[in-house]
Amino acid sequence: MATSAVSFGALVTLEELVPSSSQFTQGASLRVTGKLQEYDIETAIASIVEGNASLKIDTQHLKVNLRIGSLYQFIGELLIDPSNQAILRARVGRNVDGMDLNLYHQSLQLLRDFQAEQMNSTTS
Amino acid sequence: MDALYNTHVKLLAFDFLKLTPSPTEPSSFFRRGKRLSRAETVGIVVTRDLKPGKFVKFTIDDGSGCISCVLWLNQLNSSYFSRRNPSDVRLIAQAATDFASDLQLGVLARVRGRITDYRGALQISVSDVVVERDPNMQILHWLDCMRSLVMLLARILDSDCSASCARICGVER
């Protein structure tokens, strides 16, 4: 199987990104989506929310206009400090205002089920 | 005749990366027994390496994997195009240059092209690029890819996998 030099951002919701989750791993490449709640221009740290969950995003390497209240999607690597606080160091980000979040969540689950079925069929 | 052979087949990255090269035809690849030569992907541009006048190499991340792509920018100097009408070659070169400028980090892009094997790594040799402004296009691509694979499985296999995938996607067989 061919591989790429860069890891793809695994699709994950903020509510799934808890310390007990398998995705909550140092250096994990993730794709997250959420509404921009806060942005500190001095540190370039943003905070996005999705439902009752939130995540800090390090946006210092991005060239994206960030607007409070807009929906954004980021791909990057998860950094976890000793107190189990996580921040995503984003490689890319984009405004996704207009994304149908219900459709997104349903399709995301569908995609996971589909991929799992494909894996089961190749291993069995 | 292989109906999918000259079609840009919509593929999820994790599916694209499972293609197997034909042992006899360098331009052919197999996916579940079907011969393909072209693919379409939709995802976020996560890497970009521009060599002006030569090529731009980039990577598309669609959430299921990463696909390496190359867009050639050397049409005006290439012997491959030397026999073609010069004005046609200039148009092709200009289109490629425009595509390259559209391919910026973080954009959602729909990319189509020939499937190629470069030093053992699968990639797409790009023929055209569209930057998708609607963020729902990524979701639509996932659904299109899943649906097309279910239809393919239904045609070539009567298997538990086909049936369960069809149930997941709500597709009638």
Question: How would you describe this protein?
Answer:
Chain A: It comes from Coffea arabica (Arabian coffee). Chain A: This is CST complex subunit TEN1 isoform X1. The complex is a heterodimer of chains A (124) and B (173). Chain A has 124 residues and is α/β, with parallel strands linked by helices. Chain A has a single domain, classed as Nucleic acid-binding proteins (OB fold (Dihydrolipoamide Acetyltransferase, E2P), Beta Barrel), CATH 2.40.50. Chain A contains one helix and six strands. Chain A has one helix spanning 101-123; strands at 10-11, 29-40, 45-50, 53-58, 71-80, 86-95. A five-stranded mixed beta barrel of chain A has the order 2-3-4-6-5. Chain A is globular. Chain B is of the alpha+beta class and 173 residues long. Chain B has helices spanning 13-16, 86-102, 136-156, 160-169; strands at residues 8-10, 20-21, 29-31, 34-36, 38-51, 55-61, 66-72, 108-118, 121-131. In chain B, the strands form two sheets. In chain B, strands 5-6-7-9-8 form a five-stranded mixed beta barrel. In chain B, strands 2-3-4 form a three-stranded antiparallel β-sheet, with no helix packed on it. In chain B, helix 3 (136-156) runs antiparallel to helix 4 (160-169). The radius of gyration of chain B is 17 Å and the shape is globular. The A-B interface holds A 1-11, 31, 62-64, 73, 75, 91-100, 103-104, 107, 110-111, 113-115, 117-118, 120-121 and B 12-15, 17-18, 44-47, 59, 61-68, 105-108, 120-123, 134-136, 139, 142-143, 146, 159-161, 164-165, 168-169.
Can you give keywords for this protein?
heterodimer, A: 124 residues, alpha/beta, OB fold (Dihydrolipoamide Acetyltransferase, E2P), 5-stranded mixed barrel, 1 helix, 37% strand, globular, B: 173 residues, alpha+beta, 5-stranded mixed beta barrel, 3-stranded antiparallel beta sheet, 4 helices, 9 strands, 35% strand
